[in-house]
From TrEMBL:
<keyword id="KW-0067">ATP-binding</keyword>
<comment type="similarity">
    <text>Belongs to the 5-formyltetrahydrofolate cyclo-ligase family.</text>
</comment>
<dbReference type="InterPro" id="IPR037171">
    <property type="entry name" value="NagB/RpiA_transferase-like"/>
</dbReference>
<keyword id="KW-0479">Metal-binding</keyword>
<dbReference type="InterPro" id="IPR002698">
    <property type="entry name" value="FTHF_cligase"/>
</dbReference>
<keyword id="KW-0436">Ligase</keyword>
<keyword id="KW-0547">Nucleotide-binding</keyword>
<dbReference type="Pfam" id="PF01812">
    <property type="entry name" value="5-FTHF_cyc-lig"/>
</dbReference>
<keyword id="KW-0460">Magnesium</keyword>
<protein>
    <recommendedName>
        <fullName>5-formyltetrahydrofolate cyclo-ligase</fullName>
        <ecNumber>6.3.3.2</ecNumber>
    </recommendedName>
</protein>
<dbReference type="GO" id="GO:0030272">
    <property type="term" value="F:5-formyltetrahydrofolate cyclo-ligase activity"/>
</dbReference>
<dbReference type="InterPro" id="IPR024185">
    <property type="entry name" value="FTHF_cligase-like_sf"/>
</dbReference>
Amino acid sequence: MIPDKLILRARLRAERDRFASESESGIMAPAEFLDRLRPGMTVSSYIAVGSEADPTQLAAAAAERGCRLALPHVTTRATPMRFLLWDMTEPLVPGPMGLKQPPADAEDVAPDIIITPLVGFDSRLGRLGQGAGYYDRAFARFPDAWRVGCAWSVQEVPAIPTDIWDVPLHAVITERGMLWHPET
Ligand SMILES: Nc1nc2c(c(=O)[nH]1)N(C=O)[C@@H](CNc1ccc(C(=O)N[C@@H](CCC(=O)O)C(=O)O)cc1)CN2
Ligand SMILES: Nc1ncnc2c1ncn2[C@@H]1O[C@H](COP(=O)(O)OP(=O)(O)OP(=O)(O)O)[C@@H](O)[C@H]1O
């Protein structure tokens, strides 16, 4: 039986905490990720909170290759997440749930690549997030963006339960490398 998303989320957060406290691993940019980057692309990253996998090396690699960086910005669940222009030197401001975000008056941008924090994933590139629907709604708004999840390898499970609104990822990057199906 496929466990319910709530139960799975709680288990995988605990798994992630344990892995992060025991491991020295970091996320590095795999060659297949670097191959996608083109100057002028807009790449949305995120600022890791707690035991989340830290995508800083992915964002830095994108900036080095001439991409513009963006970060997500949220206020309340009723308001869609925005993607705001950011360069790695600009200061961030505290947001809800311990997040660090660009100031609300930063420029809105349309991302070509969305690097997404994951609670869990499966080999079919199914994704489990925080459950607020921020990324699901963003993927519906930017259907042409390349969706790449970032996680620790211990966050992989045999099958993520899917709801009708779930949009699968194109790739997942962990400390072990990149999982994807190149024909997609
Ligand atoms: N680093 C990071 N930035 C992000 C997200 C994220 O998951 N991680 N988001 C993804 O949507 C958006 C913010 N949305 C969020 C929605 C819910 C919770 C949340 O419920 N957090 C739990 C604790 C989670 C944990 O223990 O790992 C909480 O505050 O109780 C956090 C962020 C945009 N920025
Ligand atoms: N395209 C959409 N438009 C409006 N609401 C949506 C859309 N997609 C998802 N939602 C809502 O958002 C919530 C998403 O729940 P779910 O448990 O699937 O989140 P998740 O995919 O794990 O996390 P997240 O998207 O926050 O990273 C659901 O309540 C769902 O009704």
